[in-house]
């Protein structure tokens, strides 16, 4: 009886381990999306206003509200000051728009999109927020949500031993700056 129980336990154990061992032998294929995703380590996201866009230099300046203490008579109040920050877009930055663009029919009435059209507007990755857009759809004074990331292969910043001058200082500074991986346009500027 003990021998039969041992054989039964051994067969049960092999039956449970066989699928786990089979999964390890399969080669993992990386898709193009995973390779792009693996290049960046996500740092977070911020909601801000676009200050200006310099397409030729590939620089986006955003205005981030910063809390500041202000004295008014005998009281201290917390106010906000807009601070301009220049951010570098990554080479494969995605631009999305939260709402589908307005389209009108021949009579000037707003057109309703079909489910198929909306699915096509979502693009290749339907998990991303909003609908596809291009870099030219970014304008000053838009409210956007910016997703930041840093490259995986970026080295840790060196310890400051002295002031670097010229090109070396500029390269060291730009090497460790976060890059924009995705911009989602939330609201258009008020007219």
What secondary-structure arrangement, pairings included, does this model have?
Blueprint: H1 2-25, H2 32-39, E1 40-54, E2 59-72, E3 75-97, H3 115-122, E4 131-133, E5 143-151, H4 167-175, E6 179-187
Parallel strand pairs: 3-6
Antiparallel strand pairs: 1-2, 1-5, 2-3, 3-4, 5-6
Protein described:
By secondary structure, this protein is an alpha+beta fold. 26% of the residues lie in helices and 38% in strands. The chain has four helices and six strands, in the order H-H-E-E-E-H-E-E-H-E. It has helices at 2-25, 32-39, 115-122, 167-175; strands at residues 40-54, 59-72, 75-97, 131-133, 143-151, 179-187. Strands 1-2-3-6-5 form a five-stranded mixed β-barrel. The protein is extended and about 90 Å long. The N and C termini lie far apart (87 Å).
Brief descriptors of the model:
single chain; 191 residues; alpha+beta; 6 strands; extended
Helix content: 25-40%
- Class by helix and strand content? alpha+beta
**Number of helical segments with 4 or more residues:** 4
Radius of gyration: 26 Å
N-to-C CA distance: 87 Å
Q: What is the typical, i.e. mean, pLDDT?
A: 79
**Strands of the largest sheet, in order across it?**
1-2-3-6-5
Shape: extended
Spans of at least 5 consecutive residues whose pLDDT stays below 50 are: none
> Main sheet?
5 strands, mixed, barrel
Portion in beta strands? 35-45%
Number of strands: 6
Helix/strand order: HHEEEHEEHE
Q: What's this entry about, in short?
A:
The chain has helices spanning 2-25, 32-39, 115-122, 167-175; strands at 40-54, 59-72, 75-97, 131-133, 143-151, 179-187.
């Amino acid at each position: 009886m003990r021998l039969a129980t041992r054989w039964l336990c051994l067969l049960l154990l092999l039956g449970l381990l066989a699928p786990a061992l089979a999964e390890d032998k399969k080669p993992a294929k990386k898709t193009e999306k995973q390779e792009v995703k693996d290049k960046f380590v996500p740092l977070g996201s911020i909601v801000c206003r676009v200050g200006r866009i310099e397409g030729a230099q590939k620089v986006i300046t955003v205005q981030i509200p910063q809390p500041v203490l202000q004295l008014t008579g005998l009281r201290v109040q917390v106010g906000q000051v807009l601070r301009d920050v220049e951010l570098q877009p990554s080479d494969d930055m995605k631009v999305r728009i939260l709402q589908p663009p307005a389209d009108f029919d021949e009579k000037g009435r707003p057109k309703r999109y079909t489910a198929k059209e909306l699915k096509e507007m979502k693009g290749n990755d339907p998990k991303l927020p909003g609908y596809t857009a291009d870099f030219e759809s970014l304008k000053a004074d838009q409210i956007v949500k910016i997703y930041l990331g840093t490259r995986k292969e970026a080295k840790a910043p060196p310890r400051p031993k002295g002031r670097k001058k010229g090109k070396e200082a500029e390269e060291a500074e730009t090497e460790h700056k976060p890059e924009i991986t995705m911009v989602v346009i939330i609201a258009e500027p008020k007219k």
